[in-house]
Known about the structure:
The complex is a heterotrimer.
Chain A (H helix, E strand, L loop, with lengths): L2 H6 L4 H40 L2
Chain B lengths: L2 H27 L1 H4 L3 E2 H5 L9 E7 L12 E7 L4 E7 L11 E8 L5 E9 L7 H13 L1
Parallel strand pairs in B: 1-2, 4-6
Antiparallel strand pairs in B: 2-3, 2-5, 3-4, 5-6
Chain C lengths: L5 H10 L2 H33 L13 H28 L2 H32 L8 H22 L3 H15 L2 H11 L19 H33 L4 H10 L1
Helix pairs in contact in C: 2-8, 3-4, 3-6, 3-8, 4-5, 4-6, 4-8, 5-6, 5-7
Amino acid sequence: xxxQEFFAMGGYAFYVWxxxxxxxxxxxxxxxxxxxxxxxxxxxxxxxQKRQNP
Amino acid sequence: xxxxxxxxxILIILMVVGIGxxxxxxxxxxxxxxxxxxxxxxxxxxxxxxxxxxxxxxMVVKGSVQRPGDGxxxxxxxxxxxxxxxxxxxxxxxDLFREGQGIVANGKLDERGVFVAQEVLAKHDENYMxxxxxxxxxKQVEGK
Amino acid sequence: MFLIPDSVGRFFHRMASPxxxxxxxxxxxxWLTGIFLILLACGLYGGLYLAPxxxxxxxxxxxxxxxxxxAWMSLFIYMMMAVAGAIGLIWRIKLAEIVAISSASVGASFxxxxxxxGSLWGKPMWGTxxxxxxxxxxxxxxxxxxxxxxxxxxxxxxxxxxxxxxxxLALVGxxxxxxxxxxxxxxxxxxxxxxxxxxxxPSIHVSMLVPLLLMALxxxxxxxxxxxxxxxxxxxxxxxxxxxxxKLIEEQK
Lengths: 54, 144, 253
């Protein structure tokens, strides 16, 4: 099996790769978003603390 | 466990069991409406609606598929292994449509008793295997 | 003594201390991520490359490797959410409430993936994107239950009250779980019956089954990772005034 055949998925490339693509994006977002939000939240808290006791 | 927690636990269990029973009874009474399709036996017994669209499910009878004329119109028979119903359909069939395949067709019965389908969906089974395995299984069955 | 011994309860209380939990997840997450990535790589390689095409469906059946594990996870996570919610209701453990609400978004994602990939599989095989049969409809209701839980939680400002409301909604929705699982057996549906969990003869070839189970295991690990990431954020937001959070920020400087 060569690479081209692999990507063609026996003619079902659109359905198979769209499925995997959507799955990948959704799962990645579920990890990345909470991490970014947490970092931002910690930054805000640190700023607040600095203002309160300089 | 403290009495207050025991009380909450019992309350939660009662709630889940109560809702479960209620939904169970509701589903039982709506049972007919939740059926996605009628079987061919149902249709022959006159259970299917007359002059209204309904779905018919069954296996395509081997050797019954005919394409008279332009090739877009297909005639075939559906079976549930006890009764057969003749079906007529004009249009594009799904990839999985073939003889011996389970399908669900949406349409209505005409006065000849032929089911005129407007839509044909394929219902595949829950078995997954490589083509070679299928071929050898088939050989075994035929060998017997 | 009633159902659960006191010693188990005490263990949960100790584990449920927020700073302890936060530090514990920090240590646990790299390991979980490592195992998840290995399982995922093996599962994808096996499913997309090694496994042969299906005798009936050709290569399109390869969607099974994300569709079925996602659908399993959508049910599994719902049960985890309902159980965590119940523990929160009975013992008033803050951490159980956080696990429950952190599970909701992961569960909603898996339900969404199961529905979308099912649709993308249904189009070429059945000939339609969507049908209102019992299996598909009950899975869609599950998505609405998850979204309801998330929406309700965000609508109530006091998070302890919100958690109680959410737990009750989740427990009411538990009734949908057996309906989804048995829908293909109780009613005529377009969806086929269960493959892996049925009791009699095996109906999936072993070369196709192994990657499927690997993917299912990988998704289990993914759930724990994603849930913990969400839980850490949730915990910080709730405990913003606690001393351990202040210390944490000072350490980061």
